[in-house]
């Protein structure tokens, strides 16, 4: 298998890695986003028995979480504001895409999340921010699309 050529041009800037709400087949980014992170995990189940001297494991359940930080606004159409409203109303399950979506091509992750927590911060003389914890609800799908020729 040939070694892939990795250059500065094919690396992804953090500015291009975003969280998008999927609403009515439209991918809507959080416009005031400061930071997004994605964590993917796999449980290890201990399968060691008395016949061996080394620990042995098998794969268990996979899971994923995400966190999002953005400037809080009063605009009801702002996707960040909509996420806060969803948590307050009890409608915590929503579909998201986390990654890069552009005309040059997509590399992203898609799945359903449950909003598990929100922290709103309002320091004196600073913009209000909202930090949100999201827990993956089911499979995380890899979305790849190359640019149209």
Any overview of this molecule?
- The chain has one domain (11-48, 59-146): Pnp Oxidase, Chain A, CATH 2.30.110.
- It is built from one helix and eight strands, in the order E-E-E-E-H-E-E-E-E.
- It has one helix spanning 79-89, and strands spanning 18-23, 26-29, 33-46, 57-71, 93-102, 105-121, 129-136, 141-146.
- Strands 1, 2, 3, 4, 5, 6, 7 and 8 form an eight-stranded antiparallel β-sheet that branches.
- A hairpin with a 2-residue loop joins strand 5 and strand 6.
- This is Phage major tail protein, TP901-1 family.
- It comes from Alistipes indistinctus YIT 12060.
CATH class membership:
Mainly Beta
What is the tally of beta strands?
Answer: 8
CATH topology: Pnp Oxidase, Chain A
Topology order in helix (H) and strand (E) letters = EEEEHEEEE
Offer a few descriptive terms.
8 strands, Pnp Oxidase, Chain A, mainly beta, 54% strand, 7% helix, 149 residues, Phage major tail protein, TP901-1 family
């Amino acid at each position: 298998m040939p070694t892939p050529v990795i250059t500065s041009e094919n690396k992804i800037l953090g500015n291009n890695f975003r969280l998008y709400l999927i609403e009515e087949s439209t991918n809507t980014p959080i416009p005031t986003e400061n930071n997004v992170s994605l964590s993917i995990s796999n449980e290890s189940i201990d399968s060691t028995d008395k016949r061996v001297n080394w620990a042995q494991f098998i794969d268990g359940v996979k899971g994923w979480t995400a966190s999002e930080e953005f400037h809080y606004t009063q605009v009801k159409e702002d996707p960040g504001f909509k996420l806060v409203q969803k948590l307050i109303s009890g409608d915590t399950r929503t579909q998201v895409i986390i990654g890069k979506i552009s005309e040059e091509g997509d590399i992203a992750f898609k799945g359903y999340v449950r909003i598990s927590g929100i922290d709103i911060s309002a320091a004196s003389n600073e913009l209000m921010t909202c930090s949100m914890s999201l827990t993956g609800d089911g499979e995380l799908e890899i979305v790849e699309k190359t640019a149209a020729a």
